[in-house]
Amino acid sequence: MQFSPDDPFHDYDQGAYFCELTSPRGDDGATAAAIRARIGAIGLDALRARAAAAETELINLGITFTVYSEAAAIDRILPFDCIPRLVTAAEWTGLEAGVRQRVAALNAFLHDIYHAGHIIRDGTIPAELVYGNANYRPEMKDFPIRFGTYVHICGTDIVRDAAGTFMVLEDNARTPSGVSYVVENRHLMSRAFPDLMAGMKLRPVDDYGRRLLEAMAEIAPEGVMDPQVVLLSPGIYNSAYFEHVFLAREMGVPLVEGPDLVVEDDRVYMRTTAGRRPVHTIYRRIGDDFLDPTVFRAESLLGVPGLIGAWRRGTVTLANAVGTGVADDKAVYAYMPRIIRYYLGEEAILPNVETHICREPEGLAYTLDRLDQLVVKPVGESGGYGITIGPRASAAQLAAARAALIADPSNWISQPVISLSVGPTLTEQGIRPRHLDLRPFAVTGRDTWVLPGGLSRVAMKEGSLVVNSSQGGGSKDTWVLDTEATP
Amino acid sequence: MSRHTPLLARYAEGLFWMARYLERVENLARLVDVTQTFEAPGREAESWFGLVRINADEATFAERDIEPSAEAVKRFYLLDPLNPTGIPASLESARFNARTLRPLISTEMWMHLNVFHRDMTQIAPEDLQGDNLSRLCRLIKEGVQTHTGITEGTFFRDQGWLFYQLGRLIERADQTTRLLDIRYHLLVPAAGEERRVAELTQWGAVLRGAAGYHAFRRVAPAGFTPQDVVAFLLTDTAFPRSVLLCVEQMDWLLGQLRSRYGLRGTVPALERSEELRAGLLGRPVERIVADGLHQFLDGVQRDLILLAGEIGTAFFRDWRPLAEPSSQGQSQSA
Predict the structure, then answer these.
(1) Is residue B15 a contact partner of residue B99, using CB atoms and an 8 Å limit?
(2) What are the contacts of A127-131 at 24+ separation with CB within 8 A?
(3) What is the per-residue DSSP string for B287-326?
(4) Most CB atoms within 10 A, among A84, A160, A316, B271?
(5) In this predicted model, what pLDDT tens digit does every residue of B143-190 receive, in sequence order?
(6) ipTM higher than 0.95?
(7) Using the beta-carbon criterion (under 8 Å), do B6 and A257 form an inter-chain contact?
């Protein structure tokens, strides 16, 4: 196909990476071609003007997050790239099955380690890695959990290598965020680029709130007819406050803060104008440590004294359960293929990225030998903090990473540098390839439902592999094609 | 199919205050505008200091050692974020409340307030100069009026809306008493025709400040007296800013909270509003003026503070106590 110099794609070069729009894949490629043609028809200038208007709208709507890594807290929008990321129907079938499988294994694993601990006794995973994990909560031992669902909301970070193979980079089983952007990005695209979307048969994303509420109602204590669900937020100063607002609105439930709740006789109530009203399910967006000052951090003002006691009595359900952090730990991650096999008797549908565990001598030696070729990550962190990317690091950075590894090996894992796939992205220079990942969201009550698509995070800086919003990443609308049919 | 959903006490409180702060912003813009229009040539500083008296801010002025010039007064109310009775602080508080209310208010309400707040943080000293000031006041008024219109058209009318209206009406009634009190503080020539003309001009200014000048002309007798103006602003129930109309609407709102939502905590507040009404209608206006308008208005303001206190105690207070009432009883702990 020939492109004229007016065509914004005329100088697009995906390089050695898999491109989510231009690389050939299983389907006939007609939708991707249509998207390219339509973007060409819109033209670079109009594309920029509309993208700028869309970002202004995000600011006006207050669809922002707060960054704390700088001197002050600053409200920022998640940069929005208007060129959608495409997922074919066949690709999605595989991704969805892989995510479901992963969530099932995570829940089975959590149930096991907080009960009999077969997997440890059978020697499939070292005891120390589980019981010695900072995120293992002894308080959860033998705790009754409805349907065995610990991880009600799960975000699975998936990347794609140069050959186009999807792999799981990380599980987020605590309080994963980003789903609000999935829905808001779609709304934004519909308003700003109706001509790009016209006739596209896409899987809808509007259903998330209803599905989530349904799951929250399912997990409410048995016998409650019309359960009161609430979303517990740390409040307006939390970086994800917008998402909390979004979720509360989409579910149609109150967004409460710790002081809005009170526990009496092992029952949780919210303070309303008509006095106290019982609460049955709490979708909490507060970390384990802050939930209940009588059980965890005593100085926490965000939580609710007595909450864990009420949960234990079975009068209220928390989502996600406490103590899920042990399952999404980067060290436990290395064992996920084995964990899947152990509980489900299946091979992992989505492979892991090859991972070396530095707590093990071989892993440490391997890592130290090839520090300049590997990505080194701390096991307990999230948000892309503390990562050293070997091939891109300076000598000083490598020396610092080496010192940190030697000082505390068990705090680190290493992985090969994955040539993350790219998506065409609007930049100052024109349309250029930028690396991206995908975070699908799975909601589990009795069963698991996966929101079609997920959050496509894109590293806006040229060559950057870090997609995290706290590190300057942006996002794209993710289009899952409903069928292989072309518009 | 409307099912009555419970309203968090914190939300009720936030709605009450958000509305109150915005009403205050609009009224302050009106006061500034009218002060500008009717400032006495050669006595500008005195004219502007009237605004400080209306807002009972003399002490703050003295404490912070601000020179009572026209310029200083304008800056104090339009630019100074540290002045809790000024427009920047009130808008900040309104937006703070709106932020906590985002799950409840309409997206359009939030978006407008977010943008309005941002625009108003850009006010610069030159916007207070010359004819810019009047334009600025118009923008502020229109900003709040846009909010009011968006709210009217988009905000779900369950009990949250009732608390929103209560906050707004309490503030409006309070502001009308302050506007009326301006007259008490004005300097007038000692006697004669000069005094009569000066008085008429000032009462005209008060009416304009309340956006009631033309309505008053329609209903007032040809040779109207100051008492007619007082009666209009206090008790004409066709006038949107009259104290009595505000009280009657609050009565209705409280009644709705009780009958539709079963909130029995409204009883003490209803008693207060009944007292307010009796105070307004109990004596002919000539009598009120003769006995001392300033004292009467002080009494009304005190009753409004008590009314707000009853609402706060019954519905907000068990979770976040209101701050000690300031001289205006309008502060909110954040």
Answers:
(1) no
(2) A129/A331, A129/A332, A129/A335, A129/A359, A130/A326, A130/A332
(3) HHHHHHHHHHHHHHHHHHHHHHHHHIIIIITTTSPPPPP-
(4) A316
(5) 999 999 999 999 999 999 999 999 999 999 999 998 888 766 555 556
(6) no
(7) no
Query: Residue ranges of the domains in chain B?
Result: 9-316
What is this structure's pTM? 0.91
Residue A3 has pLDDT above 70, yes or no: no
- Min CA distance, A248 vs chain B (Å)? 6
A217/A312 Cα distance (integer angstroms): 18
Residue located via tokens 């690091």: A393
**Interchain proximity A257–B10, CB inside 8 Å:** yes
pLDDT class for A17, splitting at 50, 70, 90? very high
Of A233, A249, A273, A280, which to mutate for an interface test with B (greatest number of B Cβ within 10 Å)?
A273
Which spans in A152-279 are helix H?
Answer: 179-192, 194-197, 208-218, 241-251
For residue A2, what pLDDT is reported? 52
Range name among A90-104, A172-186, B38-52 with the lowest pLDDT average: B38-52
B100: chain A residues, CB-CB within 8 Å = 235-236
Which range is least confidently modeled, A57-71, A120-134, A314-328? Answer: A57-71
Peptide bond into B27 cis (omega under 30): no
Burial class from Cβ neighbours inside 10 Å (0-12, 13-18, 19+) for residue A212 reads: buried
Instruction: Tell me the sheet residues that pair with A435.
Output: A422
Beta bridge partners, A232, equal: A256, A284
As given in the structure block, the two tokens for residue A267 are 């029952």
Class of domain A356-416: alpha beta
